[in-house]
Design brief:
Elements (H helix, E strand, L loop, with lengths): L1 H13 L4 H12 L3 H14 L4 H14 L3 H9 L7 H17 L3 H14 L4 H13 L3 H14 L4 H13 L3 H14 L4 H13 L4
Helix pairs in contact: 1-2, 2-3, 2-4, 3-4, 4-5, 4-6, 5-6, 6-7, 6-8, 7-8, 8-9, 8-10, 9-10, 10-11, 11-12
Length: 207
């Protein structure tokens, strides 16, 4: 592990302009020490230069994975108005997802509508709006959003899982199982899909 870290740090030193090397080092550190990964990314961000938006997004992602949502939101907010349009859109989508997780549905809905106004086919925003609609039991509207998201990105695992949730609300258990199986095909280690599918099979004693 120490040898691998040394190799990655040397790669950053040898290619200081290569954003990929910096992201690879941060990703490696995050596997064992989130704080070290975050500190490393903040150091790279402070240096300035190209790739600052990607580094800031990576910092937000690390915090989000650890459930540190306030810190993640702060990182994403820093680039939500970036001149890098793609990066800004990613940040705004992540902020909307955090707002949903924190129960701020109204705030999330407003952000999602702004994203969809700029990009009506944005799959991430459609999935986030669907999650709000599922919570409000607006099932048919949620399914319509998720169908559109999957038209844009058929390999969108989160959309398949949310679609299963909406189908369960409608009592369509077989359809829900199909959606979860599809999610597992695309990402075999995706825990939410595996857990839900196991629950459905146990309910029907197919185990």
């Amino acid at each position: 592990t120490a040898d691998a870290e040394a190799v990655l740090r040397q790669a950053v030193a040898d290619m200081p302009g290569r954003i990929e090397a910096k992201l690879a080092l941060a990703s490696f550190l995050a596997e064992n020490d989130t704080a070290a990964a975050a500190d490393t990314l903040r150091g790279f961000i402070a240096e300035g230069g190209a790739g600052a938006t990607q580094l800031q997004l990576a910092l937000g992602d690390i915090y989000a994975r650890e459930g540190e949502l306030d810190e993640a939101a702060e990182a994403y907010r820093a680039v939500s108005g970036s001149a890098d349009k793609e990066g800004a859109l990613l940040a705004r989508n992540q902020l909307a997802r955090i707002a949903v997780k924190q129960g701020k549905s109204g705030e999330a809905a407003a952000m999602i509508e702004e994203i969809l106004k700029a990009d009506p086919k944005n799959a991430d925003a459609l999935a986030s709006r669907a999650s709000i609609r599922i919570a409000a039991r607006q099932t048919d509207a949620a399914i319509a959003d998720l169908r559109q998201a999957l038209d844009e990105n058929p390999r969108f695992v989160r959309a398949h899982v949310l679609l299963a949730n909406a189908q369960l609300q409608n009592g369509a258990v077989e359809l829900a199982k199909s959606s979860l199986v599809e999610a597992l095909k695309l990402a075999q280690a995706y825990e939410p899909a595996a857990t839900q599918l196991a629950g459905l099979l146990i309910r029907e004693q197919r185990f």
